[in-house]
Specification:
5 strands, mainly alpha, elongated
């Protein structure tokens, strides 16, 4: 197996049992990267995926609940498994220092791995810093008072409690100036610029350039400092990653992690929605996500889609179960109206068959997930692919939402999520509001992570009677033995081609996909 990282042995602690004085807190400021070795690339990826699950749970709950409220903590507890909670939120198994050190090592390794993963793109860096800062704030808020004091001391943050003499002199003023009149007995004196957010919200008393911060707001001050520290770390890492020559093993893995999607891949049609060319336009209005509906409407109106839009559109149609022959008919119909000749239409036929896995290397391509659409191949002028919540301007998106039936208040709810870079949550909110207009209120809707997930959830909500689960490609073992007394596995003939060409998780070969476009290049450039 391939080893990456330093060969330095993990640090061992000689204490046989947990000692509160040795390990009094769980939060990590991540001052220095760890030097422990990661044995394999599989471990490298596993650590990253684990932490990504936690960060995405933090993001999802932060959108649904008021941050750091009782409901927020309860929802975090419900959304994460016990193992992840114990490893990344509160390390409750403290019978052994060695066990706790192993968990902390994994915590630190996963954090710095994701620093590398998300360092290559400004939007990705912003998302990572935001979620890590909220996870840090969540963990720090759960520390006890002695543990918090030790954390401040160990990380040399320089915050000390107000001396007793000064506290006695300012006691009445401080308690009278505390937010909401709540009684506080412990304050920290610091330069007012270190608590700008608390000063702006008038949560602290300011005198002669110093802010007197109560303990309950000290956590927010430290979290802001962590965010600043992490931003500086990421800025340095950008330069390092730009200069590094390591691009054969890790960079492909980074790209896979950033666009990681662990849900249903929709490469095989497991559900029959009864879709065909006759009802496609109706389904586009009722159940297509905004991205697919936008492409479909422009294709019908302009009779043309450019390269990346065609790929995204064809794979979406494949994922919802539109037969390949119908997709070819639709493509021929629209592009013939655009003026393509027979030779050019044959190239389009090839593109559809390739997307469905019937040409080239016959790979069973997965329809792209939301994260892949958001992070890859942004649309240019005259292109209609991508994620509207990410790639549309605010004015264009607001106009589109109005066209699709959202009133001003509903559009504002969605736009607020877009402005905060919560693109998938904006799509989820659109789903909830759109279906509520059809007397189908949505309760406990999971975050939309895939355009085809949106379509499936919509059909099951609006017309559950039209959704039929297909039998598996391979039938169960026959109930009766054959003439020789053997049981056999039978393969449904109608699904033979799909089974034959199944090749999961193969990335689209852009050069191969462009091979059928030679004739179209001049035409596309002129649009």
């Amino acid at each position: 197996m391939e080893q990456i990282g330093s060969a330095k042995k993990a640090i061992r602690n000689k204490h046989p049992v947990y000692d509160e004085e040795v390990l009094p807190y769980d939060t990590n400021f991540f001052m220095e990267p760890p030097y422990e070795a990661i044995t394999t690339l599989q471990d490298f990826e596993e650590y990253a995926q684990e932490r990504l699950k936690v960060l995405r749970a933090v993001e999802n709950v932060g959108v649904k609940c008021r941050k750091f409220s009782q409901q927020y903590y309860e929802q975090i507890n419900n959304d994460l498994t016990k193992e992840l909670r114990n490893r990344y939120i509160r390390m409750t198994n403290k019978d052994s220092v060695e066990i706790v050190l192993q968990e902390r090592q994994r915590d630190a390794l996963s954090h710095f791995i994701l620093q590398m993963v998300f360092s290559r793109n400004e939007d990705q860096r912003r998302w990572f810093i935001q979620q890590e800062s909220e996870l840090f704030r969540l963990r720090l808020g759960l520390e006890t008072a002695p543990a918090l004091s030790r954390f401040i001391s160990d990380n040399a943050l320089g915050y000390t409690a107000l001396p007793d003499e000064e506290w006695k002199n300012l006691r009445d003023i401080l308690q009278g100036s505390t937010f909401n009149g709540q009684t506080e007995s412990e304050f920290y004196k610091m330069d007012w610029v270190e608590s700008l957010n608390q000063v702006r919200q008038r949560h602290v008393f300011v005198n002669q350039g110093y802010a007197y911060v109560p303990r309950k707001h000290l956590v927010d001050v430290i979290a802001a400092r962590f965010r600043e520290h992490l931003s500086h770390q990421m800025a340095k890492l950008v330069r390092i990653m730009t200069e590094t020559q390591e691009n054969t093993r890790l960079f492909p893995l980074f790209a896979r992690l950033v666009t990681g999607y662990s849900g249903k891949d929709y490469s095989v049609n497991e559900t029959d929605f009864g879709i065909n060319l006759d009802n496609l336009n109706q389904l586009a209005v009722e159940s297509f996500p905004v991205c697919a509906r936008h492409m479909h409407e422009n294709f019908r109106r302009d009779h043309h889609l450019r390269h990346w839009a065609r790929l995204q559109y064809w794979l979406f149609l494949k994922g919802i179960g539109l037969p390949m022959d119908d997709t070819i008919k639709l493509t021929r119909l629209e592009f013939s109206r655009h003026g393509l000749n027979e030779s050019q239409l044959k190239n389009m036929d090839y593109g559809v068959r390739h997307s469905y896995g019937r040409e080239g290397r016959r790979a069973n391509y997965n329809p792209p997930s939301c994260m892949k659409i958001i992070t890859q191949n942004p649309p240019g002028q005259g292109e209609h692919h991508g994620c509207p919540f990410k790639h549309f301007s605010e004015g264009m998106l607001r106009q589109k939402l109005t066209t699709y039936g959202m009133n001003s208040d509903e559009a504002k709810q969605i736009m607020d999520l877009k402005v905060q870079n919560h693109y998938q949550h904006a799509c989820t909110r659109y789903f909830e509001l759109f279906h509520a207009k059809h007397d189908k209120p949505v309760l406990g809707m999971p975050t939309i992570e895939h355009p085809n997930q949106y379509f499936e959830e919509s059909r099951r909500l609006l017309h559950p009677e039209s959704v039929k689960d297909k039998p598996p490609v391979f039938s169960r073992r026959s109930s009766a033995p054959d003439a020789d007394g053997n049981f056999s596995m039978t393969l449904a003939r109608e699904n033979f081609n799909d089974c034959e060409m199944s090749e999961m998780d193969i990335p689209i070969d852009d050069d191969l996909m462009r091979s059928y476009e030679t004739v179209m290049e001049k035409e596309s450039a002129s649009q």
